[in-house]
Specification:
Number of strands: 12
Order of helices and strands: HEHEHEHHEHEHEEEHEEHEHEHH
Helix content: 25-40%
Radius of gyration: 19 Å
Oligomer: single chain
Shape: globular
Structural class: alpha/beta
CATH architecture of the largest domain: 3-Layer(aba) Sandwich
CATH topology of the largest domain: Rossmann fold
Strand content: 15-25%
CATH class of the largest domain: Alpha Beta
């Protein structure tokens, strides 16, 4: 199966052909995938070199001229390193762009901690107005990339990963999907965590919701699920644990509830290992999730 990032350049290249407002800004990463598109649209495919602050600033400048910039590099270099530019050049100036990341939380362990960004979504939560898509399959990534570019002048972050569920689901860039129904609690799986969550909750009487758009979160669907399944909620996110806990707490602020936020831990893992070993070390494999979810739900009784 191809990866989410394998879909990125072909999808955006087609959009460059279809929409004269679309522009692409790169910082060396991913340049080869846009070679053909650059030959057709040399004024709208720009490589700024390894200059991540300039990457965001250039995207903002293009947006000020009326273009729809798609800006791409690894998550740590797209959100964390140039965050001042994200905050000021885009947010403060009131212009939008589509930031498309690669490498997710730890997709390239051999790259070390400089290439890991489990705090990216939490960092974007400190500024206003961002839509955040976290696809769990290449088909979903393709759909959400198109949604992001079509979102007028909004600020949109699309978080791509080599981690993937076995099958894609229909997504619309807004709503949660109910994948399994139960009556003893709600488990909200984000993006590529869904397959592990379904394996972990097999035989446990819980409702499983699936999110590929986490900002804004479809809190109306979450509330509807808790009306029949109860207000014990487990969040399973492929980035920093607890990132969406406050959002869920706010959605259920008028009813007694409990929330358990599972995700990537704050402790730095100082061994390269594999992606699968990092998943297990952070307790996001199916066996670990089952123990933590079952233990949490049992505590309500």
């Amino acid at each position: 199966m191809d990866t989410m990032r394998d879909r990125f350049a072909p999808v955006i290249s087609r959009l460059l052909d279809e929409d004269p407002r679309v522009a692409v800004v790169l910082a060396e990463i991913g340049v080869d995938g846009f070679a053909a598109a650059r030959s057709r649209h040399p004024d709208r495919v720009i490589n700024v070199g390894i200059r991540e602050q300039l990457l965001i600033g250039t995207g903002a400048g293009l947006a000020l001229t009326g273009l729809r910039p798609v800006v791409h590099t690894f998550a740590s270099f797209l959100v964390e390193r140039p965050f001042e530019q994200v905050k000021l050049d885009l947010g403060h100036q009131g212009v939008g762009a589509v930031l498309v990341s690669a490498a997710a939380s730890f997709d390239w362990p051999a790259g070390g901690y400089t290439h890991m960004a489990p705090g990216d979504v939490a960092l974007l939560d400190t500024v206003d107005g961002w839509t955040v898509h976290v696809p769990g399959h290449p088909d979903e990534a393709e759909t959400l990339l198109r949604h992001a570019v079509a979102a007028d002048d909004d600020k949109v972050y699309v978080r791509l990963s080599v981690q993937s569920n076995a099958h894609g689901l229909p997504v619309d860039g807004a709503r949660l999907r109910t994948v399994r129904e139960g009556r003893a609690g709600v488990v909200l799986a984000v993006g590529p965590t869904l397959d592990a969550v379904l394996d972990a909750t097999e035989g446990i009487d819980v409702t499983v919701l699936y999110a590929t758009t986490v900002r804004p979160l479809d809190t109306a669907a979450l509330r509807r699920a808790t009306e029949s399944a109860g207000t014990d909620v487990v969040l399973v996110e492929p980035y920093l644990a607890g990132t969406s806990t406050a959002t869920v707490n706010d959605a259920l602020s008028d009813v007694p509830h409990r929330v358990l936020g599972l995700g990537v831990g704050r402790r730095e893992l100082r061994r390269y290992g594999t992606v699968e070993e990092h998943v297990a070390a952070h307790g996001l494999d199916a066996r670990s999730l089952r123990e933590r979810i079952a233990g949490f739900m049992a505590g309500a009784r």
